[in-house]
């Protein structure tokens, strides 16, 4: 093993120690991911080239990334990308970083979409559906549903639209849609939830709205605070204010038998399910994430 401090192995050890001293969880993994990105390869390059000396330009780029990470900037922003549902989404400080637990929203959405298309076939209608992803952010949910529906439901006409109140977020979502849905259009609209949507226009309403409570916002980590606060704020005292507004208007825009699928906070399942039942939805389910916590609301309009 090379003793030269410019060698990949030595640089990685020093970087890990630097991030640990800064109090960053997952210091070793973060150091590996960042160094591999500078070297232009997968993390395996850190093993196969552990004695290679970094060029001065590589040292400079890595040192800059390392200090930004030590200061709390998320790795996804440093790399400009986060994988979601096996798709590479471009992300930056204009949007929230897609989380693994949000993949449960996509799973539930595809299950609901399958039911809608099968229902259309059983009724003798062409299989089709209109899907609206509100609070789209990076476009992770909407783009993924569009990508997966084309693969899983060939021959069905599934139109996916997305909305967000942030122009910056729509710019990121648009770029991701253009790159990950080649040859397909995903219309984007700047809107506050479903306000401009006409009545009875949507078969499947998807959302990952802000659901942190006011108290939760006061205790977020430095890393989460690096993400756009406006995309986290608005849940109110119990974290459900925006979701309540969305659900109250969902009945207007959904077609009979249509679905709402939304991410929710880990302690909100009971309250949100009760609200949905009070609003007159026929079917309500709260699905857990891999940790067994409330994570996804699925509700079907009567």
Q: Secondary-structure blueprint of this entry?
A:
Layout: H1 8-21, H2 27-39, H3 45-48, H4 56-70, H5 75-79, E1 81-84, E2 87-90, H6 103-122, E3 128-134, H7 140-152, E4 157-164, H8 167-180, E5 188-190, E6 202-207, H9 214-217, H10 222-225, H11 241-253, E7 254-263, H12 269-278, E8 283-288, E9 294-300
Parallel strand pairs: 3-4, 3-6, 4-5, 6-7
Antiparallel strand pairs: 1-2, 7-9, 8-9
Describe this structure as you would to a colleague.
This protein is an alpha/beta fold. The chain has two domains: 8-71, Ubiquitin-associated (UBA) domain (Helicase, Ruva Protein, domain 3), CATH 1.10.8.10; 100-300, Rossmann fold (3-Layer(aba) Sandwich), CATH 3.40.50. It contains twelve helices and nine strands. α6 packs across α7 (140-152). The radius of gyration is 22 Å and the shape is elongated.
- Give, in spatial order, the strands making up the sheet with the most strands: 5-4-3-6-7-9-8
CATH top level assignment of the largest domain: Alpha Beta
| Unreliable stretches | none
Number of strands: 9
Order of helices and strands: HHHHHEEHEHEHEEHHHEHEE
Beta-strand content: 15-25%
- Counting DSSP H or I runs of 4 or more residues, the number of helices is 12
Question: What number is the mean pLDDT?
Answer: 94
User: What composes the largest sheet?
Assistant: 7 strands, mixed
Q: CATH architecture of the largest domain, please?
A: 3-Layer(aba) Sandwich
Percent of residues in helices: 40-55%
Radius of gyration: 22 Å
Distance between the termini: 67 Å
Please name the CATH topology of the largest domain. Answer: Rossmann fold
Helix/strand class? alpha/beta
Q: How would you name the CATH homologous superfamily of the largest domain? A: Vaccinia Virus protein VP39
Q: In the residues, how many domains can be counted?
A: 2
């Amino acid at each position: 093993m090379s003793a030269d401090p410019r060698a990949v192995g030595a640089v990685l050890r020093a970087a890990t120690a630097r991030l640990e001293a800064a109090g960053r969880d997952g210091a070793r993994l973060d150091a590996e991911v960042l160094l591999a990105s500078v070297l232009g390869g997968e993390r395996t390059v850190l093993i196969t080239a552990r004695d290679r000396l970094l060029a001065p330009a590589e040292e400079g780029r890595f040192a800059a990334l390392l200090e930004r990470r030590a200061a709390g900037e998320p790795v996804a922003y440093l790399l400009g990308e986060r994988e979601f549902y096996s798709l590479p989404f471009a992300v930056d400080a204009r949007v929230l970083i897609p989380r693994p637990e949000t993949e449960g929203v996509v799973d539930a959405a595809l299950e609901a979409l399958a039911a809608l298309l099968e229902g259309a076939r059983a009724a003798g209608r062409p299989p089709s559906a209109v899907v609206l992803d509100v609070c789209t952010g990076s476009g992770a949910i909407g783009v993924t549903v569009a990508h997966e529906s084309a693969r899983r439901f060939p021959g069905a006409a599934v139109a996916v639209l997305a909305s967000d109140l942030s122009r910056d977020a729509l710019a990121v979502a648009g770029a991701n849609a253009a790159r990950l849905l080649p040859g397909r259009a995903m219309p984007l609209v700047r809107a506050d939830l479903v306000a401009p949507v006409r009545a009875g226009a949507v078969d499947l309403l998807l959302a990952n709205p802000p659901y942190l409570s006011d108290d939760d916002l006061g205790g977020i980590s430095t890393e989460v605070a690096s993400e756009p606060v406006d995309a986290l704020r608005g849940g109110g005292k119990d974290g459900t204010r925006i979701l309540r507004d969305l659900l109250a208007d969902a009945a207007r825009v959904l077609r009979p038998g249509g679905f709402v699928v939304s991410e929710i906070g880990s302690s909100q399942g009971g309250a949100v399910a009760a609200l949905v039942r009070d609003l007159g939805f026929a079917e309500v389910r709260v699905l857990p994430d891999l940790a067994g916590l409330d994570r996804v609301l699925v509700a079907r309009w009567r």
